Input
Amino acid sequence: MEFTLLLYDREQRWTEMSEEQAEREYGAYMAYTAALREAGVYAGGNRLEPTGTATTVRVGEGKTTVLDGPYPDTKEQLGGYYIIDVPDLDAAIAWAARCPCASHGSVEVRPVGAVSAPA
Output
C-alpha cells in the first residue's frame, strides 16, 4: 500500500542554520532516504522549492484566479515528500516517526488513492 509522507517545517529555519548545521541536517535526510531504499519501501520523493516559487490556482464562478506564492498563511510549510510502499498504516507511521522532519516539524501520513477511470 502506498503512502505519502508530507514534510512540514518552518521554511525560514533552513536560512537560519549555519552551514555546518545545514550539512548535518542534509546528511540526516540522506541517511533516512538510504534507509528507506535499503528496506525496499522507497517509491519516490523530493524536496520542494521555497514557497515563494509557488503559484496557487483557484477556479470559482467560471473565473480562474492565479496567486503568486502559497495561499494559506501557516507557521509550517510543505517542504518535501516521500512516497513509500509499505504493508499498512502502522508501518507508514513507523517510517514517518524516523523522518528527520518529525523532530522539528511534522510529517503528515496520507494513503495514496487509486485512480479510477470514469464509468
